[in-house]
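> forwarded from #structure-qc
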C-alpha cells in the first residue's frame, strides 16, 4: 500500500514475474537464471557484517495513523483543491478500458499446446531444454516444462531472443555464450553452449464471450457489454483518484520531511530489499552449497551509493504522499471510525475473522494511516471537475 517511486514500482512488477518463474524451475534451471529485483517480507539478523534492517510497518506513527511528533501545518502548504480541473480524455478512453480488459484476460491465459501462433517477444511459453557444452550435458542445464515470458530477461542473454518465430511442437537448437563474468557458475564463464529446445506450447488469453463473462465475472456482469461498462466505471474511478492526488502533489509545497519519519520508511524499504536478497541467496545455497551474491548491492546490481540513492528517493516520495494525505485530513476536519478502518482492512483481502491478525501483523498505525489516505483520496476524487474537451 505504500506509495513508491514509479520507476522502481515498474521494475518490481517485472521482477516479481521473473522470480516466480525462477522459483518454479529452480532445481533444473538455476545456472542460467540471472538476478533481478523484487520487494518481499523481512526477517531479522546480520547480513555479511552489516546490521540488517527490521520491518515495522507502523514505525513513526501514532496508533491513530498520524505521523508522530510532526506539525504538518508548518511543513505543508496545500494547493487549492476545491475544484480540480480535468478533461474526460485524461481520465478514461476506450483504449484504457480495452487495455485493462486485455490485462485481466492475459492474467488468465492457459497453455495451448495446439496453438498455431508464431512466437513473438512478450509471449508466455512453455519449453523443455537440454543444454550441452562440447556435446556433453552439464549440471542444472536442462529443464522440462519451464515457463517464461519471452523478452523479460529471465534467462541468460541471447537465449530468449532465439525462441521467437517458432510454433507449438517445434524442436530446434539454439546457441548461447555465457558471459565472461558469469557469477552464478564460474565453470560456465565464457563457454558456448547449445540448447535443444522443445516448444511445448504458448499461453493464450481466453476470448471475452458472453459465456466467459457469466462463468468468470458474474459478480460484476452477465454480458460482455455489462462487463465493459463495469471495467470502464472502475478504471475511471481509479484514474480519478490518481489524477486528483497528482494534482494536489503538483500544486502543494512541502518545506521539509520529518527526519525520524523518513528514517523509519527508509528502514522498512531496506528491510524489504534485504529480505528478498537473503531469501534467494539462501535458496541458491540450499541447492549449490555456495552463496550466489556477496551482499545486497550485488544482488540488485547496484553500487552502495546507487542503492542508497534509490532508497532515499522512494522513501521520500512515500513520506510526502502520506504527509499530503494527513494534511488534507486535518484541514477538512475529517474523522475516522474503527468501523471504517475495519472495512478498509476487509477491502484489502482480509475476512472479518482475520482483521485482528492483520492488525497484529501490521500495527494499528499502519492501518489507520492507510485508511486515512484512502478516505482523503475519495474526498479529492469528488473535487475533480471534468470537462468534455480533448
Amino acid at each position: 500500500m505504500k506509495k513508491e517511486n514509479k520507476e522502481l514500482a515498474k521494475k518490481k512488477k517485472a521482477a516479481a514475474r521473473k522470480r516466480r518463474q525462477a522459483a518454479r524451475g529452480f532445481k533444473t534451471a538455476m545456472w542460467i537464471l540471472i538476478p533481478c529485483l523484487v520487494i518481499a517480507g523481512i526477517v531479522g539478523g546480520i547480513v555479511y557484517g552489516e546490521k540488517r534492517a527490521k520491518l515495522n510497518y507502523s514505525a513513526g506513527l501514532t496508533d491513530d495513523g498520524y505521523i508522530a511528533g510532526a506539525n504538518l501545518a508548518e511543513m505543508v502548504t496545500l494547493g487549492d483543491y476545491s475544484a480540480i480541473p480535468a478533461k474526460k480524455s485524461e481520465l478514461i478512453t476506450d483504449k484504457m478500458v480495452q487495455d485493462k480488459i486485455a490485462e485481466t484476460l492475459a492474467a488468465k491465459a492457459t497453455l495451448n499446446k495446439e496453438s498455431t501462433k508464431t512466437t513473438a517477444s512478450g509471449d508466455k511459453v512453455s519449453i523443455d531444454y537440454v543444454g550441452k557444452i562440447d556435446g556433453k550435458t552439464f549440471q542444472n542445464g536442462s529443464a522440462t516444462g519451464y515457463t517464461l515470458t519471452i523478452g523479460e530477461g529471465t534467462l541468460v542473454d541471447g537465449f530468449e531472443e532465439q525462441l521467437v518465430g517458432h510454433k507449438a511442437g517445434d524442436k530446434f537448437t539454439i546457441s548461447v555464450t555465457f558471459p565472461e563474468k558469469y557469477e552464478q557458475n564460474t565453470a560456465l564463464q565464457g563457454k558456448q553452449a547449445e540448447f535443444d529446445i522443445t516448444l511445448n506450447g504458448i499461453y493464450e488469453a481466453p476470448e471475452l464471450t458472453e459465456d466467459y463473462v457469466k462463468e468468470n465475472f458474474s459478480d460484476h456482469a452477465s454480458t460482455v457489454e455489462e462487463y465493459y461498462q463495469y471495467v470502464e466505471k472502475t478504471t475511471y474511478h481509479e484514474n480519478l483518484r490518481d489524477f486528483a492526488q497528482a494534482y494536489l502533489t503538483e500544486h502543494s509545497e512541502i518545506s521539509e520531511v520529518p527526519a525520524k519519519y523518513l528514517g523509519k520508511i527508509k528502514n522498512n524499504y531496506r528491510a524489504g530489499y534485504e529480505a528478498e536478497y537473503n531469501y534467494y541467496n539462501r535458496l541458491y545455497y540450499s541447492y549449490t552449497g555456495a552463496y550466489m551474491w556477496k551482499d545486497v548491492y550485488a544482488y540488485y546490481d547496484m553500487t552502495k551509493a546507487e542503492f542508497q540513492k534509490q532508497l532515499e528517493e522512494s522513501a521520500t516520495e512515500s513520506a510526502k504522499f502520506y504527509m499530503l494525505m494527513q494534511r488534507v485530513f486535518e484541514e477538512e476536519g475529517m474523522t475516522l471510525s474503527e468501523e471504517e478502518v475495519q472495512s478498509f482492512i476487509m477491502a484489502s483481502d482480509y475476512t472479518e475473522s482475520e482483521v485482528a491478525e492483520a492488525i497484529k501483523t501490521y500495527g494499528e498505525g499502519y492501518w489507520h494511516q492507510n485508511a486515512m489516505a484512502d478516505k482523503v483520496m475519495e474526498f479529492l476524487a469528488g473535487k475533480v471537475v471534468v470537462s468534455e474537451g480533448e
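QC bot note: The chain is about 45% helix and 15% strand. Residues 1-50 have pLDDT under 50 and may be disordered.
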